[in-house]
Every structure is written in structure tokens, then in C-alpha cells.
Amino acid sequence: MRRSLGRQVTEISSAASPSRATKILLVEDSLANRDMLTRRLERRGFAVCSAADGPTGVAMSVAEAPDVILMDVALGAMDGWEATRLIKADPRTADIPVIALTAHALATDRDKSVEVGCSDFDTKPVDLTRLLGKISACVAKNLGAREPLLSETETATPKNPSPLEAPAAAPPKLAASAGREFDPPDALAGSMRDFRELEGKDLIGRVGGFYEWQNLRRSRGLWPYSKSTEQAPLAFCAARDDTGLRFSGLNFATQDYLGLSSDPEIKEVAKAVVDEYGVHSAGSSALAGNTKYSLRLERTISDFLDLEHAVLYPTGWAAGYGVIKGLVRPSDHVVMDGLSHACLQEGAYSATANVHLHGHLNLDSVRRHLKRIRSKDTENGVLLVTESLFSMDSDSPDLRALQELAREYEATLLVDVAHDLGAMGQSGRGFIGMQGMTGEIDIVMGSFSKTFASNGGFVACNSPAVKQYLKFYGCSATFSNALSPVQAATVAKAFEIVQSRKGQELRTRLLKRVVQMRDALAAARLDVIGAPSAIVPVLVGDEALARMVSRRLPELEVIANLVEYPAVAKGNARFRLQMMPTHSAEDVAELAARLRVAVDQAQGEFQRYRAGSGDEREQVKAVA
Ligand SMILES: Cc1ncc(COP(=O)(O)O)c(C=O)c1O
Questions:
Q1: What pTM was estimated for this model as a whole?
Q2: CATH 1.10.760.10 is held by the domain 22-149
Q3: In whole numbers, what is the pLDDT of the chain averaged over residues?
Q4: Whole-angstrom Cα distance, residue 422 to residue 451?
């Protein structure tokens, strides 16, 4: 049963200031053990911080003031007993109970643990239920049982929960919302770009830095990526984060722009084709991987776009990469919008060193690049690349002007229509149709993974020679398995719906919700950017603040994607809300209210963090 949404925000906002969660300092030198135990304890509602060696453990016992310390005794340079001795000798930490973790249940280990002042000891690998009992006993004794510890039964997920009826993970007890004062700067700063350049001969070992950073963020509830859904990605959905923690909520993180992924007609077609064909095309389209459904889909796409030919690819990414790599040679040039999708950029940089990024949507910048290139090089090809709807900013270029510039400078225009084809415009032809450019663009490329309910991509143009050339020289189609018959038939059915009255109604409803959402966000004093489309970007700005906001979302029962550098510019972190016609007006109002709550809650933490780090910036602009 979907929860009653009306009362939710106020209930949650008060609940989201938990009295406290029991804080554990785990001193353990094995990364695998540390990681595993941290996650298991956090899942049970403890706030966990960890140290990899004795000296750090001693320092953190002062800095973090934990309720209990779990101390591995075999720590190398300074063993856990020595570290415990130091902790017990310091009046600031003497009262913190320490549970020794030993590899063997030897009487001598027990004696030694007692001798240095440990309250208890346990063996590794730990029996979690037993360890929880020991933690509980230690802390209750130490704190005079002021606040009962969370027990496994309080927080455990039911064995076979019905996804919609199961309660959300107990929010106030999550480590994600606890221990916030102590988020280390490394978890709030840095980006994935920091780990792109790798040095050293150990190809496997040298990626460990990223894993450590990711785990640090994960341990603080600051790693919102790699979520999985537990059911079809509907407007309200059950999901898990990448530690396995289950939550459910309003889903604004799914790129199913017309909601066709669960459409009954589409499901019927898919089932029938599975019965007819099996599930696999079992070959590249260059060999025998075509099916009657993929051939039909090629015709459907070219008819829809009023272009004569279409080539299919296993994914949209493969289409973007493959069309550029297939057509561009090292002496050619690519002029592309600086915010173009990774598949286009990767394709360009792998095809030629002559890649010129122009200012986002800036026609003057495009002209300057083309002019400069043609003043020096009249011999080689120039591919001008853009998107009809940029997915991080929800904005669009003037396609007619770009096509005219391409003609003027003997360049070829390629437009990626991944995010608007099918979902936008009266006829569903996206911004190409809305700008009166159907059939006029040199090359159109797109993805099925947004509106067309499947994996896959395409390239369409008017030249049969280009179609054949890409089939055999566009590596990501030639040397990759073709779409399965069920994928091709699903997408063809989606195109049929897109062109039907039902498709029009879905687009009308989608746009209505989009406008409602943009209005509701603006009314909640959130900074919504771009123009109306199925993507509604909400700018937050500072990455640390955005991560803190994101951490709040599961407990507010919201599923929304955080986008940060390098996917967007530094200091421009945002939430990319993705809308579907299945969202109700109530969902929209709730989302805006809950996002506001999350921002308000995070703002306090953020200011303390900034003050603590000596960086007393003004409030970030998005959260006035
Ligand atoms: C603009 C753009 N082009 C291409 C792709 C790749 O599409 P697919 O998910 O089908 O690989 C995406 C998806 O993220 C996209 O946003």
C-alpha cells in the first residue's frame, strides 16, 4: 500500500533529528573485515567510524568520543592491547568500554584483554548477534542504560517483505543520519576525477585509492550511487542502496519518460515475442543477428524521423560512440558542445586529436570554431555534434541555426536525441519536430533506454552508403551482438504508442506534471534550472552540501539522483529529477516539500562543517 503522503513530511522532519545513535569506533587493520563489519553494524543502526591501526585508533578515541570501541588485538606495529592501555590511561577516554576482538578464543587472550582494561572480548570472524549483545551490555553499563541500544530485531528487514507494504528502513537509526558532525572532509570533498590518473605498475592495486574514498563516503551514507530497484521502476518504488540497505519512496530517478516500461501492451508484445523467438539474437547485425523485428524497427525509425535509413546498435552509448568513430578519421575535426554526453566525447577523442569543444549552446562559439578550422583546412571532414536536449541542464540548441552553420562551413551535423525523442513535442519527435527540423538534420542518433522501454540505440540518415559503412566500420555495431528480438519488438511497439493518441495523452500528462513540478520547486525556494522537459534539474551547488542533502533522501522516502563533478561542473552539484506521466499531482507536491526539508536539514550540518573547516562561506545560492 502506498503510504499516505500528506502527513509524511512533518512526521519525518521531526523524526529525522534522532536523539542519538550509538557510536562505535572499530579499530581493525584488515580493509575487508573493517568494511564488512562496518556495513553490518550500520545496517543495524549504529554510527561507525573506523581506524586501520593502533595509533589512529587511540587518536580517534579522543576525537570521536565513541560509546564503545571494538579493538582488533593483532594490529601490527602497535597491537590492540597496547592501544587499549593508552586509551585507558587517558582520562578523556578511560571510561569508554573496549571489546577486544581476537582471532582465537584462548584463555591467555582473555586474560591479557582483562589485564589492559577491556570490558569484554570476542573472537573473529564475529558472531554478530553475540557481539551485539556484548556491545549492548557494555554500553548499557557504561551509560546507565540512558538510551537503549538498537537491537537486531528492531532494525532487521522482514524475511519476505511485500515491497510496497514493507516499512522503509528505520530512518533515525541509520548511521547515514548519525554522527554527522564527524564527517571527515575527505568524504565531503574530492570527486571521481581525482582517481582517473593512475600511476604505478600494479594495475590492480593502484585503483585501491578510489575504493577507500568510496568506502569512506559509503560509511557516512554519502555514496548515493548504484542503487537497485526491488520492483518495476514505478512512481513509488522499493529500492536498495549499494550496501543492501532497503528503502522505498517516491521515485524520481527513472528515465522511463512515458512510463512505457510497465505498459500492458508492451509487456504483451514482449511475452509473445519471447514465446515465438526465444530471448536472444545470437549474432552481430553484420552477420546473422538481424531478426524480422530488428529490420522492421529500422524502417519504423526512419519513417518516424523522415530519414531514409537507420542502423541499430546494442545501446545508445554504442550508437553515439560508433557513429563518430565510424565516420571520423585522424585528420578530420569534431566540433562539439562542451557538455556533450560521454559516448560522443569518447567517440570523438578516440577518432581524432582535432576535437574542438564549443561553448554550451553558443552559436557564436560554433561559428568561430568552424571558421578557424576552415581557414586552415579545406580538405578534411568536420563533424558538428550536439544534443537536442542536454540531460544535466534540460536545455536545447537552435538546431536550424546549427544545420545552417554546418552547411555554410561544409560540415556534417550529428544530433543526439536520447532524452527528448518520443517524450517531447506534439508528435513525439522531440525538439527536432518542435523546431520544424524533421527530416532536415544530416545525422540523428538516439537511445531506446529513456522513452522506448528497452536497451538499444540507433543512427538515422538519408544515405544508404552511410548505413552500410556504419554497419561494417562502426565498431560498436559490427563487433557486438545485435538487439535481441524481444528488445527490437518492444521498441517498435513503443514507437507505435508514441505515435498514437495514447502517446499524445501521455506526453500531455507528463508535461503537465513537469510544469507543476517546476512551479512547486520554485515555490519551495529551490533553484530549478533549464526549460520544461522530463528532466527537472535542481541546482544545489556545493558538492558537500549536495551529498548531505542526498543522504537525507532515503529517510524522507525519496529516490532521486545526485549528479556531481565531473558529470557537471565543480560547484554545480544538482539533483536530476526524472518525471513520468504516472507521477500524480500529490507526488509532485510531496517531492518538492521533502526536498525542501532535506535541504533545510542538511544546511545546518553544512554550516557547522564549513565553520569547522574554517571556510565560512555564505549559504549556497540554491538554498536561500
Ligand atoms: C545524451 C545521451 N546519449 C546517449 C546515451 C546512452 O544511452 P544508453 O543508455 O542507451 O546507452 C545517454 C544515456 O545516458 C545520453 O544521456
A1: 0.73
A2: no
A3: 87
A4: 6
